[in-house]
């Protein structure tokens, strides 16, 4: 998988004519998955929506940490600092490498297989930690109506049953997951549209401008914004399952960006403008209480139901991304072969089981601990992605990119600078406990890759590279050079 200069063959390229970088499929043009339906545009939009957002459930802490004005400004400005650059890079790199390895293949092609594996380990672990949030959020929204779910044995059993049910849905197929995401997304956003209409007479614009710079919890504020507006790159690990990814993926990312920003800003605008401010009350599940104050118990129940279903959508979308990432890594020989096996529904069975196990083991953590830990690991992974993006731009500037951000190398570097500064701030604000746990997780990955190479050499476990995968080959200066070994 490493970059190399070994020449496979010479090919004649007329002067002035560019061949570029393109995927070439060895041994014919037959696709790998003829028997399984690909994901189309609309389901892909909602899969991205659930990878990133799922609605305003979980944004309440931004008001608690910083007050209405900074919370509203955060969800307007932060997307331009972080979400837009990440989505643009995902569109360019995802169409350049349209396979399930996603960002693992990007980093491997630019920095070598060792760092590609580290990328895969950190992003998979970050995704599993992130997925452990959704049973927590699900129960936080329901515990006001069902106090027994707040703690103890009923809570543990509910988390376990929910994980099993949603894991089975992932097993049944990505097309089903996609259209379920569409239905859940519509249902989850509708109560906030209703809330906005009902709340119009109660709105007081002066409440939106309340701010106290001396009383801001910057760590909680930035972690909340970061968690709610990242993971745009997660959809890249499903690129091999997308219908015409070179066209569909950029469009889906654009529409999902609009949907995510609206899904956060509008409910915050209504919630902070229609009721008196008590920052201490703004925590997980508070939107259901706001709904009751604005319209009554019926809207509260709707918001709670929407939250539950939204968390289901986020869970299945994240698990799909995590499990297909493991499949993509196995198809490139980075993980044992059994991770590449598909079920009769076309889904990665072992990837799903491993991801579900991780969710169950991590679901005991608190909401804030989970957010901080996954943000820390996610930051490391994003640094590698930015490096890979810039390196491929510099090393192969004329490569064929079905979607290309309209900037040169200097522009690509500048595009990565604001989110990189933000990453440094998030890392610096992490607690000592989160920092130690996260660095320990990184250390495990640094050791794991050589260990896997050792057991491959000893043939204790079978590794293989899928011969049906397209080979990424740049054709420049008359030579064909394989980027993926």
Give the SSE map:
Blueprint: E1 7-10, E2 20-24, H1 41-52, H2 60-66, H3 68-96, H4 103-111, H5 113-131, H6 133-142, H7 152-171, H8 174-199, H9 218-228, H10 245-274, H11 286-295, H12 297-331, H13 349-362, H14 367-395, H15 409-428, H16 432-457, E3 471-476, E4 479-481
Antiparallel strand pairs: 1-4, 2-3, 3-4
Largest sheet: 4 strands, antiparallel
As a percent range, the share of strand residues is under 5%
> Could you tell me how far the N terminus lies from the C terminus, measured between alpha carbons in angstroms?
4 Å
Output mean pLDDT: 83
Query: Which spans have pLDDT < 50 for at least 5 consecutive residues?
Result: 1-33, 475-481
Anisotropy-based shape: globular
Descriptive report:
This protein is mainly alpha-helical and about 475 residues long. It is built from 16 helices and four strands. It has helices at about 40-50, 60-65, 70-95, 105-110, 115-130, 135-140, 150-170, 175-200, 220-230, 245-275, 285-295, 295-330, 350-360, 365-395, 410-430, 430-455, and strands at about 5-10, 20-25, 470-475, 480. The chain has a four-stranded antiparallel sheet with strand order 1-4-3-2, with no helix packed on it.
Features:
single chain; 485 residues; mainly alpha; four-stranded antiparallel sheet; 4% strand; globular; disordered N terminus
């Amino acid at each position: 998988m490493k970059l190399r200069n070994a020449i496979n063959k010479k090919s004649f390229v007329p002067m002035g004519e560019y061949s570029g970088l393109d995927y070439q499929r060895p041994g014919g043009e037959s696709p790998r998955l003829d028997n399984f339906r690909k994901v189309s545009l609309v389901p892909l939009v909602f899969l991205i929506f659930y990878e990133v957002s799922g609605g305003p459930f979980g944004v309440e802490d931004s008001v608690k940490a910083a007050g209405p004005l900074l919370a509203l400004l955060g969800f307007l400005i932060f997307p331009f600092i972080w979400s837009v650059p990440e989505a643009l890079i995902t569109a360019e790199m995802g169409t350049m490498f349209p396979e399930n390895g996603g960002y693992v293949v990007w980093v491997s092609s630019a920095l070598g297989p060792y760092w590609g594996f580290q990328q895969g380990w950190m992003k998979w672990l970050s995704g599993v930690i992130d997925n452990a949030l959704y049973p927590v959020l699900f129960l936080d929204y329901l515990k006001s109506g069902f106090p027994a779910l707040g703690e103890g044995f009923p809570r543990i059993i509910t988390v376990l049953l929910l994980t099993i049910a949603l894991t089975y849905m992932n097993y049944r197929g990505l097309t089903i997951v996609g259209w379920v995401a569409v239905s859940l997304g519509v249902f989850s956003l509708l109560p906030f549209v209703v809330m906005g209409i009902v709340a119009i007479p109660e709105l007081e614009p002066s409440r939106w401008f309340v701010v106290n710079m001396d009383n801001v919890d910057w760590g909680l504020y930035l972690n909340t914004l970061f968690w709610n507006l990242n993971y745009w790159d997660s959809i890249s690990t499903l690129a091999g399952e997308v219908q015409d990814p070179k066209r569909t993926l950029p469009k889906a990312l654009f529409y999902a960006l609009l949907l995510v920003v609206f899904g956060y800003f509008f409910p915050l605008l209504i919630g902070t403008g229609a009721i008196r401010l008590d920052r201490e009350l703004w925590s997980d599940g508070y939107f259901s209480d706001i709904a009751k104050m604005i319209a009554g118990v019926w809207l509260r129940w709707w918001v709670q139901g929407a939250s539950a279903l939204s968390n289901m959508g986020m869970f299945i979308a994240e698990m799909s991304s995590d499990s297909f990432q493991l499949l993509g890594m196995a198809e490139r020989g980075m993980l044992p072969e059994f991770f590449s096996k598909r079920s009769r529904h076309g889904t990665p069975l072992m990837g799903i089981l491993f991801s579900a196990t991780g969710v169950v083991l991590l679901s005991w953590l608190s909401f804030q601990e989970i957010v901080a830990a996954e943000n820390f690991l996610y930051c490391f992974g994003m640094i590698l992605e930015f490096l890979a993006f810039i390196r491929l731009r510099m090393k192969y500037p004329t490569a064929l990119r079905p979607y290309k951000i309209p900037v040169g190398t200097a522009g690509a570097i500048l595009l990565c600078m604001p989110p990189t500064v933000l990453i440094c701030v998030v890392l610096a604000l992490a607690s000592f406990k989160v920092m130690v746990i996260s660095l320990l997780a990184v250390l495990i990955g640094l050791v794991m890759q050589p260990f896997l190479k050792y057991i491959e050499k000893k043939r204790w476990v079978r590794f293989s590279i899928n011969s049906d995968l397209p080979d990424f080959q740049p054709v420049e200066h008359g030579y064909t050079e394989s980027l993926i070994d």
